[in-house]
Amino acid sequence: MQFGIFTVGDVTPDPTTGRTPTERERIKAMVAIALKAEEVGLDVFATGEHHNPPFVPSSPTTMLGYVAARTEKLILSTSTTLITTNDPVKIAEDFAMLQHLADGRVDLMMGRGNTGPVYPWFGKDIREGINLAVENYALLHRLWREDVVTWEGKFRTPLQGFTSTPRPLDGVAPFVWHGSIRSPEIAEQAAYYGDGFFHNNIFWPADHTKRMIELYRNRYAHYGHGTPEQAIVGLGGQVFMRKNSQDAVREFRPYFDVAPVYGHGPSLEDFTAQTPLTVGSPQQVIEKTLAFRDYAGDYQRQLFLMDHAGLPLKTVLEQLDLLGEEVVPVLREEFAKNRPAEVPDAPTHASLLAAARKEREDRQEGARA
C-alpha cells in the first residue's frame, strides 16, 4: 500500500490566535509539508485545485514541479484535477511535462470539485458537470495514448490531426484516479477505463463508502479488467494526534468547531463517531484506519488530511512526525497481513511501464504464432 497526505490548501484563520496566514505563507507551508512527508517516509503528496478564496492551489502542476525538484522518492499527485472546467488538452500537456521533470513520480485524481461558481468562471455550465467529466476524460485518455488525435465533441472545439506535447514519459500515461464522494457515475467511469477510484472518506459514514466502492469493484470486473478484488481503490481520511488522546481532543476542538465545510455543525464527538475522522492517540488512529478494510476491502492507497482548518505549520509537522514514526509503519505491517496475493500493489510509473512492455511482447509473440 501507499500512504501519504493530501491538502486542500485552505487559508483559514487560526481560531486560537485569530491570525490568518498570508497566501505566500500558506503556499510555502504546503511545500514544507510535502518535503516533510518524504522525510518521514510517506509515499505520496497530493494537492487540490481551487480557483476561489480561501484556497491557494490554483496551479497544481506549478507546485508539484517545484516539489519534484526538491524530492527524490515522493509520488506527486493531485487530490482534485478539475476535469470539468480544465481543457483536457492542457491537462494532457501539463501532466506529461510534469512526468518528465519528476522522472515519472506523477499521477493525478480527476474530480468535479465542490465549488459551483467555478463553472461559469471557465465558461462552463454546472448542470453539465457529469457530462463534462465524461467527455473531457474520454478525450484526455486518447490524447495520452494516440500520437495523432482527430476528435469532435459537445464542449470544446474539434481537433484535427492533433498531437499533444510532450508525449507521456516512456509512452506511458500517468495513472489516473477518479475521485468522488457521492456520484455513482464517476465510480462507473473509473471502472470503465480500468482506472483507480478514490473515495474522499471524510464526510460520509462507512455504509455509504462501502456501497460506492462495491459499485466500482463490480463494474471494474464487468468491464473485464480483473476480479472485483483486483480493482484499484484509494481512501482519504482525516486525523489529529497527540500522545495522549485527551490532549488531542482538547487541542483540535477549536479548529474543528470553525473548520470550513463541517464547522458550526455536529459536535466533534458526533462527527468522529459517524465518520472516519480520528482525533486521539496514534494507537486510536491505527485501529480506526485498519478498520477501513472491513468495508473497503484490501485497497492500494491511504491519504490523510492533516493541514486543514487553520492548524499552524509547526503543529502539522509534528503530526507528520507521529504519522511517519508511529502510525504508518504499523499500518504497513498490519495491512500486509493476510493480503491475498492477487490483490495488486498501487500502480507506479515503473509498474505501468513493465506492464506495457509485457503487453507489447505478448502481442509480438501472438503475431509470430
Automatic annotation (TrEMBL):
SUPFAM superfamilies: Bacterial luciferase-like
Domain Luciferase-like span(s) in chain numbering: 1-295
Domain of life: Bacteria
Compositionally skewed regions (Basic and acidic residues) per UniProt: 356-369
Keyword DNA-binding (UniProt): no
Sorted UniProt keywords: Monooxygenase, Oxidoreductase
Annotated InterPro entries: Bact_Lucif_Oxidored, LLM_FMN-dep_put, Luciferase-like_dom, Luciferase-like_sf
Region (Disordered): 338-369
Gene3D superfamilies: Luciferase-like domain (3.20.20.30)
NCBIfam families documented for this protein: LLM_CE1758_fam
Protein name: LLM class flavin-dependent oxidoreductase
